[in-house]
């Protein structure tokens, strides 16, 4: 880039940076960015020895997450926290770009969106752009390679044609996607809204939708875990050193429901990894307790100690990475008596699966309500991820309130029973399972203080008075600088927006909710009588939520206000009357509505052919909707989990979901939990050796590999045989891969997931089977994985060979011999040699074989020129 006046060298001349390393921002990338910053006039301050950040002299914090201890203090000091991409973008434009679009705050749901609108009506276009920018996005009038989304009604617009002709990696979405995101205050998947063939226009609302994984719930599904999760490599002896406790003093409160043995293990882990234990609140940095009560909890909260529960502590142990206990609802101590207003509620769940269902059950119980697995007429609420299921039909017939999970999450976060009349709680996008956005709600610290530790702190000891006063001041200022609500809520429909975010006023851009015809899409593309989104007009109110517009005379206004007050007083009685009227049939039976009558008729007919007088129907979750109340039975005690297993290649359940569910319950009753890939596990169960992602990832963690015959025995005989008698033996594949499986397992336990520690492995972007699989395998073994494409810059630091006493280290590029990939080889080799590294362009089989053997080795047969020759 030409720079005749030398301005590039002054780009960061007034900036002082500090970096927070994390999984998303590796040390190698920090080193490269630091060099770029210094080259262009900036300076970098390194963290302290205990990894804490120095804030008093910096102007920018570069972090790809807000999960670091100094985040609140940085916000109070008005120090911008930006992603590492901000530096690259500033360098590309030769000027410091806007900070807002590069915020790592997950509540800025459009922070990585560069939007360009096509054939959208001008008023709707202004509303979409305004709200997108308020939530971190950027508007672009022209189509460039930086544009990530085009909002359009069809593919006919020139902007859409440009994307097709130039093969740009840009998503063309209907405005309905933005509409649904604005309503929920969460960013949902664009898939169902993508042109030219959007799913929301061709699929029926009742068609099945896959239940998504819950990526935000890992280690946060329960506030009271009953076990210490195993280490990442499956072996306590091989557990790597933890950095998260270094220099920290931890206090375990007496209200924790853990045994002395488990408490001793936890304390040992903290002490062995640089932490310290204390029994004094004033001395601790972190205070761990179970409930939001007690003098010690109040004192710790007043002194601004980090207060979390056992689930949060376990999460730190497993992941060895800081996260705020305010980030996830069940990482903070629970209210012992629940949230006011929840005590008499009976809540059931539909359309959520896996960890999301467990999380909701625990959250409902923590709030003080009663969770019910089955749907009965005495239920008060149904929390559902879609508005289509047997339970949903029953809720409509029985007049039971139906909402999504945002209601229970935000009620718990704000420590109060929120009204279900808010539109975001009753909104269900037509082709989205809302389980994909579960677990993203933060706790409201202001509400916690008002309810659980009001007032000021006790007088601190003289030596700690100054530090405590400064810390309290910082955290108090933070509450003024930070919004307690999500940024998305500030532009949400039917709420008063803050002044600085009020981009959708009635007189400015009345972005009413559209039917398909409103957006100009042909009505022939949807089924008669069905709307892609509910046709309720929505407006942004600039006054109070329930304020009546001033459109009548003073006399009329007075009479109307009086009538509204009287009607408001009777509202609860009217609702109760309507509810009971639907429940009580004319014949005086116990259930109400047409659905209940049909169930009773069916029960009488079935008595002739079945012996049981009661009938039950299963909804899509497998939970029964009872037509008659069964007698209460003592709940059997659930056996404690003794083994966690991951299955791969298991054929018993193929195309038989009901059998799988039944078998999983049976195994759980035996103390064997079948967990999903990515969770800690003790055993990997497979019929034979396979080079799949699941097999290689869990082998790398040191999991013991068992034959699937072991699971079959457990299910067929109803008892758990000794796992050591069923170690997987596969002579044929051992010969094929040239290894001994048991040797690989033993090596994996010793390697502790660090077989490829800090070894750079590149992968061509167009490699067969995609880059994600290889990334998962490489990173499970500690490698630094990067994608290498035609436009990739130099990512290896140039060094002087004379300064390197060890000699060039190898750097690998996974590739095939396709003409497109061959073009990258020379550039990669030149880059590696300039960095004094030995380039090795290899077939992907090298990585698979190395990980399968759990032994780092190299043979020239893996070079692409030999492998594909």
Structure report:
It contains 26 helices and 26 strands. Mean pLDDT is 79; it is low at 232-237, 459-465, 477-485, 489-560, 584-597 and 607-629. The two termini are 40 Å apart. Helix content is 33%, strand content 11%. Among the domains are: 9-102, BRCT domain (Rossmann fold, 3-Layer(aba) Sandwich); 114-201, Rossmann fold, CATH 3.40.50; 643-742, BRCT domain (Rossmann fold, 3-Layer(aba) Sandwich), CATH 3.40.50.10190; 760-867, Rossmann fold (3-Layer(aba) Sandwich). With 869 residues, the protein is α/β, with parallel strands linked by helices.
Gist of the model:
The chain is of the alpha/beta class. It contains 26 helices and 26 strands.
Reconstruct the topology from this structure:
Layout: E1 16-19, H1 27-39, E2 43-44, E3 60-62, H2 71-76, E4 81-82, H3 85-93, E5 114-117, H4 122-134, E6 138-139, E7 149-151, H5 158-166, E8 171-173, H6 175-184, H7 199-202, E9 249-252, H8 260-272, E10 276-277, E11 286-288, H9 295-302, E12 306-308, H10 310-319, E13 346-350, H11 355-367, E14 370-371, E15 381-384, H12 390-397, E16 401-403, H13 405-414, H14 445-452, H15 462-481, H16 554-583, H17 593-606, E17 616-618, E18 624-626, E19 643-647, H18 657-669, E20 672-674, E21 683-686, H19 693-700, E22 704-707, H20 709-717, H21 731-737, H22 741-751, E23 760-764, H23 771-780, E24 784-788, E25 809-814, H24 819-834, E26 837-842, H25 845-853, H26 864-867
Parallel strand pairs: 1-2, 1-3, 3-4, 5-6, 5-7, 7-8, 9-10, 9-11, 11-12, 13-14, 13-15, 15-16, 19-20, 19-21, 21-22, 23-24, 23-25, 25-26
Antiparallel strand pairs: 17-18
Helix pairs in contact: 11-13, 19-23
Domain BRCT: 7-104, 105-195, 342-425, 643-728, 812-864
InterPro entries: BRCT_dom, BRCT_dom_sf, CellCycle_DNARepair_Reg
Protein name: BRCT domain-containing protein
């Amino acid at each position: 880039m030409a720079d005749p006046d030398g301005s590039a060298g002054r780009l960061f001349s007034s900036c002082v940076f500090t970096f927070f390393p994390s999984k998303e921002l590796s040390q190698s990338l920090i080193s490269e960015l630091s060099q770029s910053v210094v080259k262009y006039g900036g300076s970098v301050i390194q963290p302290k020895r205990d990894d804490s950040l120095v804030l008093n002299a910096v102007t920018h914090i570069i972090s790809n997450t807000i999960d670091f201890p100094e985040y609140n203090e940085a916000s109070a000091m008005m120090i911008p926290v930006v992603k590492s991409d901000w530096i690259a973008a500033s360098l590309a434009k030769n000027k410091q770009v806007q900070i807002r679009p590069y915020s790592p705050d997950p509540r800025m749901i459009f922070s990585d969106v560069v939007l360009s609108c096509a054939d959208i009506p001008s008023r709707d276009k202004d509303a979409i752009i305004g709200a997108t920018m308020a939530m971190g996005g950027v508007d672009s009038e022209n189509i460039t390679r930086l544009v990530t989304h085009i909002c359009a009604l069809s593919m006919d617009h020139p902007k859409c044609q440009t994307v097709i002709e130039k093969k740009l990696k840009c998503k063309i979405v209907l405005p309905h996607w933005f509409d649904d995101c604005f309503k929920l205050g969460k960013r949902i998947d664009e898939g169902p809204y993508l042109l030219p063939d959007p799913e929301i226009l061709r699929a029926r609302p009742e068609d099945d939708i896959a239940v998504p994984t819950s990526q935000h719930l890992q280690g946060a599904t329960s506030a009271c875990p009953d076990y210490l999760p195993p280490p990442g490599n499956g072996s306590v002896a091989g557990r790597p050193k933890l950095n998260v406790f270094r220099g920290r003093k931890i206090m375990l409160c007496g209200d924790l429901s853990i045994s002395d043995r488990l408490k001793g293990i936890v304390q040992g882990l903290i002490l062995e990894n640089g932490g310290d234990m204390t029994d004094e609140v004033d001395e601790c940095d972190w205070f761990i307790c179970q409930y939001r009560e007690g003098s010690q909890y109040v004192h710790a909260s007043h002194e601004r100690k980090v207060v979390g529960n056992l689930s949060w502590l376990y999460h730190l142990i497993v992941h060895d990475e800081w996260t705020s206990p305010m980030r996830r609802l069940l990482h903070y101590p629970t209210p012992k008596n629940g949230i006011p207003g929840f005590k008499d509620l009976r809540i059931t769940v539909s359309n959520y699966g896996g960890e999301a269902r467990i999380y909701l059950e625990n959250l409902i119980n923590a709030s003080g309500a009663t969770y019910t697995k089955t749907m009965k007429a005495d239920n008060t609420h149904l929390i559902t991820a879609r508005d289509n299921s047997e339970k949903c039909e029953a809720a409509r017939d029985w007049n039971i309130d139906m909402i999504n999970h945002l209601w229970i999450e935000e009620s718990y976060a704000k420590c109060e029973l929120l009204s279900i009349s808010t539109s975001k709680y009753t909104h269900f996008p037509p082709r989205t399972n809302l389980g994909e956005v579960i677990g993203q709600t933060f706790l409201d610290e202001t509400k916690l203080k008002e309810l659980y530790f009001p007032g000021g702190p006790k007088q601190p000891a003289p030596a700690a008075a100054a530090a405590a006063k400064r810390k309290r001041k910082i955290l108090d200022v933070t509450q003024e600088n930070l919004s307690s609500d999500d940024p998305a809520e500030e532009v949400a429909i039917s709420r008063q927006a803050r002044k600085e975010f009020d981009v959708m006023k009635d007189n400015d851009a009345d972005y009413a909710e559209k039917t398909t015809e409103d957006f100009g899409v042909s009505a022939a593309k949807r089924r008669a009588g069905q709307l892609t989104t509910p046709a309720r007009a929505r407006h942004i109110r600039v006054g109070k939520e329930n304020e009546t517009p001033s459109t009548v005379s003073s006399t009329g206004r007075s009479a109307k206000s009086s009538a509204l007050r009287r009607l408001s007083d009777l509202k609860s009685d009217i609702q109760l009357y309507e509810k009971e009227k639907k429940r009580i049939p004319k014949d005086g039976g116990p259930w109400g509505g047409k659905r209940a009558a049909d169930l009773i008729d069916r029960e009488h007919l079935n008595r002739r052919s079945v012996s049981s007088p009661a009938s039950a129907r299963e909804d899509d979750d497998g939970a029964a909707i009872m037509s008659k109340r069964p007698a209460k039975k003592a709940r059997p005690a659930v056996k404690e989990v003794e083994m966690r297993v991951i299955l791969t290649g298991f054929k018993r359940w193929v195309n038989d979901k009901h059998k799988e569910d039944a078998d999983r319950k049976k195994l759980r009753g035996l103390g064997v939990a079948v967990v999903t890939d990515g969770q800690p596990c003790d055993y990997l169960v497979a019929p034979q050796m396979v080079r799949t992602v699941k097999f290689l990832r869990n082998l790398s963690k040191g999991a013991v590999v068992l034959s699937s015959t072991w699971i079959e025995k457990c299910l067929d005989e109803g008892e758990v045989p000794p796992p050591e008698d069923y170690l997987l033996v596969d002579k044929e594949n051992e010969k094929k891969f040239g290894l001994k499986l048991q040797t690989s397992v033993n090596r994996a336990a010793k390697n502790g997931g660090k077989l490829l520690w800090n070894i750079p492995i590149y992968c061509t972007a167009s490699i067969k089977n995609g880059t994600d699989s290889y990334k998962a395998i490489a990173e499970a073994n500690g490698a630094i994985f990067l994608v290498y494409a035609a436009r990739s810059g130099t990512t290896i630091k140039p060094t002087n060979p004379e300064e390197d006493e060890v000699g060039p280290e190898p750097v690998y590029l996974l590739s095939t011999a396709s003409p497109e990939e061959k073009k990258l080889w020379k550039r990669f080799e030149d880059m590696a040699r300039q960095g004094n590294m030995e380039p090795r362009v290899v077939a992907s089989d090298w990585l698979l074989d190395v990980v399968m053997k759990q032994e780092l080795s190299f043979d020239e047969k893996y070079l692409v020129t030999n492998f594909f020759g």
